Structures are given as structure tokens and as C-alpha cells.
Amino acid sequence: MSTIAVIDYGMGNLRSVAKALEHVAPGAAVVVTSDAATIAGAQRVVFPGQGAMPDCMRELDARGLRAAVLAAASAKPFLGICIGLQMLFDFSEEGAVRGLGILRGEVKRFPAEAMVLADGTRLKVPHMGWNHVRQECAHPLWDGIDAGSRFYFVHSYFPLVEDAAIVAGSSYYPFRFTCAVARANIFAVQFHPEKSQAAGLALLRNFAGWDGRAPARSVTRAATA
Amino acid sequence: MLKMGLAKRIIPCLDVTGGRVVKGVNFVGLRDAGDPVEIARRYDAEGADELAFLDITASSEGRGLILKIIEDVAAQVFIPLTVGGGVRAIDDVRRLLNAGADKVSINTAAVQDPRLVLDACARFGSQCIVVAVDAKRVAAAAAPHWEVFTHGGRRASGLDALEWGRRMQAAGAGEILLTSMDRDGTRHGFDIELTRAFADALDIPIIASGGVGSVEHFAEGVLAGHADAVLAASVFHYGELSVGEVKAHMARRGIEVRQ
Q1: Whether B100 and A152 lie within 8 Å, measured CB to CB
Q2: Which candidate, A64, A51, A123, A153, places its Cα nearest to that of A94?
Q3: Whether the Cβ atoms of residue B66 and residue B55 lie closer than 8 Å to each other
Q4: What values do phi and psi take at A160, rounded to 5?
Q5: Mean pLDDT, rounded, for B243-247
Q6: Across residues A146-167, what is the average pLDDT?
Q7: Separation CA A116–CA B94 (nearest Å)
């Protein structure tokens, strides 16, 4: 039986992620784990994260799981979710903390001065709720998901990627920002597929069946606009 | 042009006691009406953007029953779940999150000990801490002004509601669930003045609650009240309106909704 390991480093509620994976992949064993050997032995790895990124980095290291995450991210189908996406980058403005440095770029806060629209409307931070996601490239994890489908977001920070070639999805609030990245066996999303009803479950189902190979890119756009 | 923006959320609220869903009118005179999991599934199928569960008798009896309900719902319904009622300590927050809640709302305990909100946000993150504010208009005030009530609306706190909202934002609350005590159960619509005062003064999202009786009331909450999300119980619970009807109306009024 194929195993999906959901990495537990003490940050946030992993039950939702595990339940959603069990729902879409009844043939897989979904294990919530903080054991490096279990992560190493799994066929697929999910790297979630909630709360503040400095806390997430600290707790990950406190459990000695950094090496296990790096190994999984270089070798097998790997899905980062929310802070689990942000931690893949070099650096975050939140607490000025270093990330895992797997992907090039920085995690930025939605800047207060950009959140006021021309008509005076002030957009709230966190960006909380359902927003459209533009699929920026073809990818097995987008299979069967309509272009522009809404996913559920709750975050105050987003990645500013250096390499536009890894941008797999973007959203708009009130400027275009990267909300999904893909490189080889890594796919990571800022939104919460486990809370995004049909579209989110489709993405998780795609992940549960993904061999970790990314297709050649047919579309690329700038990371931000 | 394809609209590209955040949708306003429509949130059915399930008032729960003794493992069943009920809905109070002005917080008294409860009518029993249904199984929480069935109702949650129905709302999900109708297009609810989120579900709120309020354990209305949690403070005095039957605590723990809500955990089983949340576990059952979370295994079948994959949209955000907010749970409140009787949350007194960090450990209550932890238990609800572990049961499958995505956000926990804190009301009375926040007033009794504001540090609870600070600690809960530090421990679990602002994204999962909602402060529920039950506000009642102060009749004699010259300028519009509301007071915070606690214990399910039974006890006056003496706190100015808007000032309290600012304090809770500063403490790290990710969202405010704002209920008008004057309007709750009346079906006369949200207290628009109250909603707009909060929405315009705070940087965090505001969920408007209390008083919805028609589809237009939902639209008013957003258009005139500037709410980020609108919550209702009775009109959904008794099948008078469906989430789909509400969304169709809001879309006609030019509001961005998830359809």
C-alpha cells in the first residue's frame, strides 16, 4: 500500500489535511508523522504549516526534521501547503527568518499601502476567503480543475519568486501574486486544498496519484504584475 | 472581464446543544431541528463558503458533545469550520482544533481574560482565532455607540464594543464575528451602522451577524455594512432561503461571490 506522510512538527491542525487525503485516496495509507524514518519511507510527502513562519522553522528544527524535509523535497512527490510553501523559500519578512532555501525567493507581507483601492476601499489582511486561482502552467496537479477555480486562502504573506519558471498559479489581491509553485517533484500552494471543497479535493486526488514528474512548461508568465 | 477578486463569504451558522442543532430567537425559546452532520452536508452542497458552529449551552452543560460533532463534520465536509461557545482556556482551543475546527471563536472568556486571545494567537496563529463580539446599542448615547455583552448576551460588560474590537485586533485576532444583540432573531436586517463602524475601523475581516430575514439583507451587510462575510442561522435552518438563492441575489447586486 502506498503511504502519504503528512509531516507533523507541532504547528497547526493536521487533521483536516489527513482527513481530506483519506477521503480522496482510500487506497493509500495516510500517516501524520514526526518520525524521519517514516517520512523517508513514504511514497509521497505533504508538508503543511500554520501560524507564524519563525515558529514553524523553530519547531521543525526542534524535532530534527529539516533533513527529512530536504530529502523528501529532492526525491519524491512533495506537496507544500500554506506556511509549508513559504518555508521552501530562502527568507521570510515575517520575523526576518531564513527558510529552507529549496526555492529562490522571499516571502513578503501584503503591503499596507497597496491594500487601498482607487475608490477608497481598504482590503483586509489576512487575505481570507475564496479567490480565483489562475493556472500559470499545465501540471498534473491541475488536471480536471477548471481554469480560475476558487480556492480557500488565509494568509498575510506570499512568495515573491525569483525564477518565473516555477510559478504554477497566481491569484489577485489587489495585485497579482504567486499562490502555487512547481519544480520537478515539488508542488506547493499558498491556499488550503483541504478546505477548498471540490477543486481542493481534486488537487489532492491528483497529488495522491502523481508520479512526481512535471511536464515541460508550455506557459510562463511573470510572478507578479 | 473576468472578475479576479476575493469573494464575500456566506456563512450558515448552526447553533448546537445536546448534539442537536437549534436556533434561538433573541437567544431564548429554542426550537429543536436537526442533525448537525446532515445539515452541514446540505449547506456544503448548497455552496456555503464556511460553516460556523455555536455551542450555545457549552458554558453550563453537555460540553464535549461538540467535539464529536466537529469530528464527524470535518471528515465529510471540506470547507472551513469555525467553532465557538464555551471556549474558556487554551486547552479548549486545542481540543476544538484537533477535532477538526479550522477556527475557534472566543467571546466571554476573552472579556474575562484578554490574555487568552493573545496567548491563543501566539500558540496557534491568528488565522484560527476569531473573537466573537455581541454588541448592544446604547440608547442614550449622543453618537452611535455599542456595548459588549457576554454569557450569550445576558451580561453587560461595560466595554465599548468598537474599542474592544480594536483591542482584540491588537491582541492578534484574525477575524471578528460581530453580532448585533438588538437585531438577532428579529429578521429586520443587520445593524448596518454597527457593521460599518467595525468594518471601516479595523484591518481584519468582519463577519456580520444578527437579524437577517431576506436576501437583500445579506447584500446590505456587504454593500452598506462593508462586511467581509455575512452569517445567518434561522433563514437557512428553516429552509426559507438557500445559500444558492442568497448568492444569486448578491451576484445580481454586483457582489463577488463564489458560484
Answers
A1: no
A2: A51
A3: yes
A4: -105, 100
A5: 96
A6: 97
A7: 35
Q: How far apart are the first and last CA of chain A?
A: 44
Apex CA A56: angle with CA A50 and CA A62, to 5°?
140
Domain A3-208 matching CATH 3.40.50.880: the answer reads: yes
Cell of A203: 488537487
Cβ of A131 under 8 Å from any chain B Cβ?
yes
Estimate to the nearest angstrom the gap between the alpha carbon of B65 and the chain centroid: 20
The kind and range of the H/E element at B66 are helix B65-74
Listed by start position, the domains of chain A span 3-208
Q: Is the pTM of this model over 0.90?
A: yes
Sign of the four-CA dihedral B228, B171, A88, A6 = negative
Determine which of A152, A156, A172 to mutate to test the interface with B (most B C-beta atoms within 10 Å): A152
CA distance B12 to chain A (A): 15
* Largest separation between any pair of C-alpha atoms in chain B: 53
**Interface membership of B51 toward A (CB under 8 Å):** no
Nearest to residue A135, comparing CAs of A68, A10, A219? Answer: A219
Q: pLDDT for A180-213, tens place per residue?
A: 999 999 999 999 999 999 999 999 999 999 999 9
Q: What was the pLDDT predicted at A218? A: 56
Q: How many CA atoms lie within 13 A of A25 on its CB side?
A: 25
Q: Is the omega angle on the peptide bond into residue A126 within 30 degrees of 0, that is, cis?
A: yes
Q: Which three cell numbers stand for residue A111?
A: 503591503
Of the candidates B178, B170, B109, the one whose C-alpha atom is nearest the C-alpha of residue B137 is B178
Of the candidates B179, B181, B194, the one whose C-alpha atom is nearest the C-alpha of residue B232 is B179
Quote the cell numbers at residue A125: 489582511
Length of chain B: 259
Residues 6+ apart with CB under 8 A from B183: B189, B190, B191, B210, B211
pLDDT value of position A193: 97
pLDDT of residue B26: 37
Chain A partners within 8 Å of B128 (Cβ)? 12-13, 50
Dihedral angle computed from the Cα positions of residues B142, B143, B149 and B152, in that order, rounded to the nearest 10 degrees: 110
* Residue B33 cell numbers, joined: 431541528
In this predicted complex, what is the ipTM?
A: 0.91
At B72, the amino acid letter reads D
Q: What is the pLDDT of residue A225?
A: 39
Would you say how long chain A is, in residues? 225
Residue B113 known to be catalytic: no
B145-202 tens-digit pLDDT: 999 999 888 899 999 999 999 999 999 999 999 999 999 989 999 999 999 999 999 9
